[in-house]
Amino acid sequence: MTVTWVHPVAVAIILATVLVGSAPALAQSAGSVHAQIDQAFLAVHAAEADGGNVTSLVSTLNQAISLTERADSLNSTNPQSAAPMYSQAYSLASSVLQGAPTVAAQGRATVSASTTEFYSETVVLAALAVVAYFFTSRVFWRAWLRAHKGWRVKKV
After folding, report:
1. DSSP-assigned states of every residue in 67-81
2. Which one of 5, 42, 92, 156 is least enclosed by Cβ atoms within 10 Å?
3. Coil, helix or strand at residue 154
4. How far is CA 13 from the centre of its chain?
5. How many Å apart are CA 96 and CA 30, to the nearest integer?
6. DSSP at 52
7. What is the pLDDT along the chain (156 residues), one digit of tens a residue?
8. For residue 111, what are the CA distances in angstroms to 22, 55, 117?
9. What is the pLDDT of residue 15?
10. 52 occurs within a structural domain
């Protein structure tokens, strides 16, 4: 009989401990969300520096920041309703962190391709300039002679 009586009391004590201990856990998750957002911001900044199109990452990061701000305002009054917002903001920041290396790699590839294209076009234009310099006079005079081959010169 004491076992059945102790069991509900133990459950009540454990439940009270979990509920009372959840406020620091929520504060810890808020801190981890802020740290995750900071890391995501640095990752987006690095991806942008590599030439990536970070528009979608910035949009997602802004959503995470907005959720975190709303959760921060609710955390002091209603921590239970702030917890899902923190969780969603954390997952959004994590998705930004996961997507940033891909965007950075695409940016590096785009920059590399445009640099290669620029140098290729420069080499082709330089080659055309050299060809034009050496052959323009020859081509011009041949064309002039063909155009004027029927002309006769008279003494005046």
Report:
1. HHHHHHHHHTT-HHH
2. 156
3. coil
4. 48
5. 18
6. -
7. 444 444 554 444 444 444 444 444 444 467 889 999 999 999 999 999 999 999 999 999 999 999 999 999 988 888 888 889 999 999 999 999 999 999 999 999 999 999 999 999 999 999 999 998 988 888 899 999 999 888 888 888
8. 49, 17, 10
9. 43
10. yes
| 131 falls within a domain | no
Tokens 């969603």 found at = 88
Alpha carbon distance 156, 149 (integer Å): 20
State the pTM of this model: 0.64
86-92 long-range contacts (CB < 8 A, ≥24 apart) are 86/26, 86/29, 86/30, 86/33, 87/29, 88/64, 89/33, 89/37, 89/63, 89/64, 89/65, 90/29, 90/32, 90/33, 90/36, 90/64, 92/60, 92/61, 92/63, 92/64, 92/67
Identify the domain containing residue 46 by its residue range.
2-117
User: Residue 148 domain-assigned?
Assistant: no
pLDDT score, position 69: 92
In a domain, 15, yes or no: yes
The count of domains in the chain is: 1
Distance CA 62, CA 100 (A): 15
Half-sphere exposure (Cβ direction) of 28: Cα atoms closer than 13 Å: 5
